[in-house]
């Protein structure tokens, strides 16, 4: 059984990000498959965590290059997710408690589509508006109005 399916609703028409998102879902599903098979899911979880760290770092680099505020809703969500993922791993390693991993599987499957459809879509929109090329890391258009907010609110850095 798949934990999360890739659907057209998740396509953001930004090839690098779409590929990264597909990889995230594949790794989440591999982790879920290991849990379902009742085999050691930690190797699959480590792969998912490493990918998620790199995935979020890439997006945050793009945000910085596009003029997002350093403290923004999008990056804050990334930090919260990584903190929870790392804490679940700590429970598994130090306390031999695997239950948080099972819970996290379900929570990530529910969180990710909403995050992609809202936060990541806003990032892609900003990238397009500013002429950002993820390959070169350059924006062809300067920000016309201060720093960008991924939540369309001026208060997300507060």
From TrEMBL:
InterPro entries: Haemerythrin_Fe_BS, Hemerythrin-like, Hemerythrin-like_sf, Hemerythrin_metal-bd. Residues 16-123 form the Hemerythrin-like domain. This is Hemerythrin domain-containing protein. NCBIfam families: hemeryth_dom. The keyword Metal-binding applies. It comes from Pelomonas candidula. Keywords: Iron, Metal-binding. PROSITE patterns: HEMERYTHRINS. Pfam families: Hemerythrin. Belongs to the hemerythrin family.
């Amino acid at each position: 059984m798949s934990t999360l399916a890739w659907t057209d609703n998740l396509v953001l028409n930004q090839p690098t990000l779409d590929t990264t998102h597909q990889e995230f879902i594949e790794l989440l599903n591999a982790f879920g498959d290991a849990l379902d098979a009742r085999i050691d899911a930690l190797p699959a979880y480590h792969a998912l965590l490493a990918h998620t760290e790199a995935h979020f770092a890439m997006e945050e680099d793009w945000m910085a290059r596009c003029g997002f505020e350093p403290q923004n809703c999008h990056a804050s969500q990334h930090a919260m997710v990584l903190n929870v993922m790392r804490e679940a791993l700590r429970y598994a390693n130090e306390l031999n408690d695997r239950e948080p991993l099972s819970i996290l599987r379900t929570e990530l499957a529910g969180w990710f589509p909403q995050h992609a459809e809202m936060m990541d879509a806003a990032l892609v929109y900003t990238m397009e508006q500013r002429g950002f090329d993820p390959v070169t890391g350059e924006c062809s258009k300067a920000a016309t109005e201060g720093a960008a907010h991924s939540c369309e609110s001026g208060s997300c850095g507060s």
